[in-house]
Amino acid sequence: MITIEQIDLFIEKIPPSPKILQETLSLLNAGDLVKAAKVAKADPALNAYLKELVNKPIYGFKNEVSDISQIFGILGVARSQQAAYNYMISLLSPEKWDMFKLNKSSFYDLQAQLSANWQKIMEHLGINDKNVYSAMSLLPASIIVSEALFSRKINDVELLRSVDEIDLNTVLQRLCKMDLFDICQRIAQKWEMSKSSMTIVQAASGIKPSQNNTVNTLGKWMHMLLFYTLSKPVFIEAGLNDFIYFQIEYVNDIYEDFTKVMEVS
Amino acid sequence: MRAVIRDGIGVFHPQGFLDGTAANSLLSVEDIDVTVKSNASMILVSLKKVIFFNRNGLDAFVKMFHKVRSANHITVGFCNYDKKKYDTIKKFYDDDLSFSLFKTEKIAALFSSSFKEKNKNVLLYSEDKSQRAALAIELHDNGHNPIVAQTKEEFIEKSKIRDAYDLIISDTFLGQMGQKVAARVTGNAIIYSLSSFLDAEIGDTFNITYHNNSLNVGFRLFIFDSYKVISMNIHALNFFSKLASSSAEYNATICFVGMSFEKTPVNFKETLEDAGIMFFEQMDDILQNKELLDELGASSAAVVKNKRALNKVLVTELPNFIDATVATIEMMTNSHAVKDAAKVDKIDILDKNDKIASSIGFYGDLDGMVMLVFPLEIAKKACELLIGENTNDKEMILDTLAELVNIVGGKVKTLLADEHISVDITLPRTYHDVDGLLEVAEGKKGVQVDLSFDNDKFLFFLTR
After folding, report:
1. What pTM was computed for the model?
2. CATH number of B184-297
3. Residue closest to B147 by CA, chosen among B164, B127, B163, B130
4. Which residues of A touch B17 (CB under 8 A)?
5. Distance from C-alpha of B312 to C-alpha of A102, rounded to nearest angstrom
6. Which CATH architecture has domain B4-169?
């Protein structure tokens, strides 16, 4: 059994974000893209990360984008903030993945695909709220934490799964009394993210719908996007597809819209 | 991915979006092999949590199904879907559904030999007559009591009394009982479906072996459903002219129904008519006109080419044919069937009155024809399970007898496959009376076996 204290300890152990990143995030939060870019320029790792992220095919830029002010300019406030969170999460990414068959590159791909498609959804829903944008960053973060928890208990996980066909999220719940989405919430608290980010992610579980219609709709889109992304071969093979049970009934009413937005055929 | 095995059924539960690339990552032949080794007699993929699938996604699974089935002779297919998904799969695979579809895992369990519960009262309906029969027989074979609804209306009506049944089956398809057919059959007419542009490709897509074997079995009326044909070019015209000439040698008739000549030269119609092809506007013009149907379909089969001798290979395989027949009759009548006498000669029917018959051809590594001749009342008794209620409708009894023969054919195919002899079967043909059968069988040497169940006698004849 892993206790909440141990999880908190683990989240606590996450190194505090570098000063430059903190300042960048705070400026982005205030909506000052120019100053944020100026500060961010001082961190070469952040620069390299952002450059790699936005030049992934999913973002669809024809020419390579390399200057950080240009990147922030193209992304806008909300998406720049989301990108900065993604960078922060990537700092936590383990050197070697044990439970999930991921690596640095495939994990960045996961972040990029979730972020870029979340952006499409936001445009479709006509939402331009940086807190809603950032909410998507929490899922990859939670996957990193889960990896860390599972990798310490791989034998227990295997044992539980050999007895019964259960999803990893249930295993997580049984081992830690917390599921993937609860961990998202814990991380959001630790990083002092907005409350709306937490409620959206909880609704995205598909089993804890929100009373608030807007939050619930966003939760459905996030649940669907999660499954759309986790149905890609690289993530199926990584073992992420059966992390949580897909709640098909929960998302039925947005299915048609979703397939149009994502151009699924 | 690991399957959940219950009651001998291994079910895989993929989730999310299923396209060609995802399917191969979700499931591998090795995953299936592990499940088969755990003594699963059925391998299914649940579509419950699959929100989207396309043809490529399903194809990846279907390819694995084929491999597994040919190696292990087990039932394979999909389960846990709604009406929309069922219709989509049927649309994707049209007449080429070689795997099974079970609406739920509970329904699948009824068809598993490992399922311990027996005696379930099951109401079933399928729009496809052969499927209704196949489902009923399999259920009966597994110790359940199938109640077959013959029409959708009857099904809806009966479904209202929910308490009367343990389970209600619809939107379910038994792939392993089916055969690959390029045609459907109505009475004694075979209907082929044509669509879009007819060009030189028709020579490749039309199953000429199947057609020739249907001629051999005695089918004499072939209808081309041409409602969906947009146009025909000179190559297709030549193909159909030749087909008509070769069919004429058997006194067979070829008809085109619903063919529009808007984008096809009208003189093509004249050329085809000169070759003996008839044109009708509506399918009902033929099918509802019993007189015409009889005239077209029951023409003399006297000019039968290639009277072939019975050969050693066929006689060696005789026990398989007898076993398949006996097993089917036993299944249908719940009584013990026995072989009374056997002789190699021309068919010999002492009393020709009140007898009906059905035949089915097979071709491939072996070729030949099985004929079953029943007194009408006995046929009725043998088909009671499928007809459901007492009926004196001769057409229905004949249709059901055709299904019975179809099942015999399917079983023969399976038994021969176990000996690595690969055959395909034609559609069953029925005969209102013995004279019709004799037109096809007279003069042919074969193995005649007198069989009986509960002292009710019937005749089995195997020939080439």
Report:
1. 0.62
2. 3.30.750.24
3. B164
4. 227-228, 231, 264
5. 63
6. 2-Layer Sandwich (3.30)
